[in-house]
Amino acid sequence: MTSTATTTEGKKARPAKRDPEGVRRDILAVAMEEFSQNGLSGARIDEIAARTKTSKRMIYYYFGDKEGLYQHVLEEAYSKVRGGESDLALDHLDPMAALDALCRYTFEHHRRSPAFIRMVMIENIHHGRHVQMSKSIRSLNRPAIAALEAVLKRGQDSGVFREGIEALELHWQISALSFFNVSNAPTFSSIFGEDLFTPQAQQTLARHVAVMVLRYVVRPEHIDAIGSDER
Predict the structure, then answer these.
(1) Which terminal residue of the chain has fewer beta carbons within 10 Å of its beta carbon, N or C?
(2) 6 forms bridges with which residues in the sheet?
(3) 17-64 — its CATH code?
(4) How far apart are the first and last CA of the chain?
(5) Do the Cβ atoms of 88 and 101 come closer than 8 Å?
């Protein structure tokens, strides 16, 4: 918000300039809410401008047009999830602990970021067109598969993980288990009730997702090392 100060002589000073990067972050944050709630066609640039106390002209200056803003929001959303994965420092954990941490992180990130899930659902309605046009999204996601490949290789080299498991397929499975929990929560809870969506039940689901994945990956003779799914 611009502010106008008054000098001791009663003259108004010039409005304080806003930090360009801060303005850009504000626009992206509000645009995420607008696009995730209303989709690409239903989102209104006027609403984003009003909520960020900017103008349509400024938004277009930063992002080109409405589709450009939408694509930047997608890129920012993917950047956050992949950045969180990097912060896990999986290469410093033993393979089983690393895979457990990745599963729980993915589940928790998606649970706490429903706007991200809605954005992905909206982009799928558009047949992934904006993801295909974005070089940054592709470059952000390649390291995620490479990191999972490294975890699998360390586990296989140590004889703990089974051979023949593809990192891309395992990534798909982890994502699917975590994504459904958010994408289908409204219909699932309407049909079956809210029992699985209490904070405690969600923690249990996150733990069980990790155990399911580990039991799929770990060699039979090492299953006992996973421990109880109640830990």
Answers:
(1) N
(2) 12
(3) 1.10.10.60
(4) 48
(5) yes
Could you tell me which residues come within 8 angstroms of residue 23 by beta carbon, excluding any fewer than 6 positions away? Answer: 52, 54, 58, 62
Q: At what angle do helices 20-42 and 56-63 cross, to 10 degrees?
A: 100
71-226: CATH topology: Tetracycline Repressor; domain 2 (1.10.357)
pTM (2 d.p.) = 0.85
100-158 confidence digits (pLDDT tens) = 999 999 999 999 999 999 999 999 999 999 999 998 998 888 889 999 999 999 999 99
| pLDDT tens column, 96-111 | 999 999 999 999 999 9
Q: Report the Cα 167 to chain-centroid distance in Å.
A: 19
**127 with 229: CB under 8 angstroms?**
no
